[in-house]
Amino acid sequence: MSTQQNKNQSHRLIKVKAAADYLAISERKLWDLSQNGIIPVVRLGRATRYDLIDLDNFIEKMKIDTK
């Protein structure tokens, strides 16, 4: 595995604040979206993490065609 791939994989799961910042929304809004099953969460014991792939998929789903 290349160094770049290894680096990307080490940051694939991010904390709540980083996920909210990534989506440019509040932590509360992120929590609401997660509670409603719109954005999946990863639970590691008591810790909550978000997968960047899931966040990117959410962004793609939310895009609208303005044509």
Helical fraction: 40-55%
Order of helices and strands: HEHHEEH
Secondary structure tally: strands: 3
Query: Sheet with the most strands?
Result: 3 strands, antiparallel
Our Rg estimate from Cα atoms comes to 13 Å
- Stretches where pLDDT is under 50 for at least 5 consecutive residues are none
Principal-axes geometry comes out as: globular
Strand content: 5-15%
Strand order of the largest sheet: 1-3-2
Mean pLDDT over the residues: 88
Class inferred from helices and paired strands = alpha+beta
- State the end-to-end distance: 42 Å
Q: Helix count, per DSSP?
A: 4
Describe this structure in words.
- The protein is α+β, with helices and mostly antiparallel strands and 67 residues long.
- It has helices at residues 3-10, 16-23, 27-35, 52-62; strands spanning 13-14, 42-44, 47-51.
- It has a three-stranded antiparallel beta sheet.
- A hairpin with a 2-residue loop joins strand 2 (42-44) and strand 3.
